[in-house]
Amino acid sequence: MLERGVLMRNVRIAVAALMAATLVSCSPYNYSKSINDFSNGVSGLTGAVEGGHQASQEDAVAIGRRKLVYNQQQVTFSASCNNGGVSKPGEPPCVVMAVGGASDTRNTPAPGPRTVRVSKALAGYAQGLKAISNASDRTEFDAEVAKLKKSLEALAALVPGLGVGGAAAIGGGINLLGWLVGTGLDLQRYETLRKTVTLVNSPVGANDQRPLDTLGGAMLIELLQMQTDRRNVLFAEAAEIRRGLGPGLGEPTYRARLADLEDVLAKLEAVRKSDPTAAVEGMVAAHDALAKALNDPGNQAEAVAKAVGEFGDRVNAVVAATSSKASKSKN
Amino acid sequence: MATASVMDIVREARAAALAFSEPIQTAMSVQSPSDALVEKIKEMGRKQSEIYAAAHDEILASRELDEALALLEAATQSLMETASVMKTGTAILRKANTLIGFGTQAVNAIKSVTS
Asked: ipTM of the assembly?
């Protein structure tokens, strides 16, 4: 009889442990850090598109300024400086320019609405992943359950005849109910996370392509075009400065122009070091690792962390290449 | 009917643009390039840019991109909605705690007056 009781107790402990292990392995918070890093990487990548356009505009302004200084031209302001109203999107910035010179080189077109939608969709999705795996939501929920338990215990203690035992029983009930609801919500989060990531990682549509491949491809071509354009502009600028460097300039002028050339070459080097293809491939690989891990939670966390880490490193190089500041002429 | 996929367009554009990379690198390795050589490098760079611009336009006009955007936007909404359930629950609990706190204070006040 006693042996049977011990056996039943052990079975209950084993079932409870198994349930707990299942719940832990299916927690949406197991990949919180990796998803957070993934989200930051996607933000960096989408921000690089905006940053790249800004950097191109800054390059154009720096080149214009350098030409004014080197040629000591008479200057005026662009027409947009005094248009009598608030600046409109796409309007050329208010800048100094050569008399008779065109300001169109300083008006790099902003990303189009479709490009902006691609960036927003990717960034929004990454934010959604981050929101659903945010462990602090559960901590806050548990804290409110604990407060509710205390509050109800305090209130129940005031009810005549209920006594301390009754109040404690109510508190225990609230704890259990809170735990059940919290765990249920965690499981709902995990299932939504798993199903959504799996769906985004699966081929769809007439071309049978994975959505992240498609959107990554759209972002990649934007980045490649921007990188090529910027490299062309910087190379032309470096060639122009180099052509004017030589004996007879006087030491201060030579020094200043050499510094200008070094500035431009530093930017070219950053563009050369960035690899948008590797960054976009890293994003897809990291998402792929997450999808695999969510569908087979057996010790895949390390693979996800590794893929996300590599993605982050590649994004950093792209961000560095698209956000270098415009050079200031030392003349 | 399936058309060229976005990834195919990207792959083809990269291959076409890469064909200019080697001549550009060779030309750039010249220590004192002539103006004509510099112009040639610029021209090859412009061609690379044109290849990417054409591919960019083709991708932005593709149906595949529309489908992917629609799916990702729906997926994001689903994630956000599920994430908000627990936050809403926490907010309700917070309000309940505040109300119970007031209730307890009121009962205590009544008790202190009636005792």
From this structure: 0.85
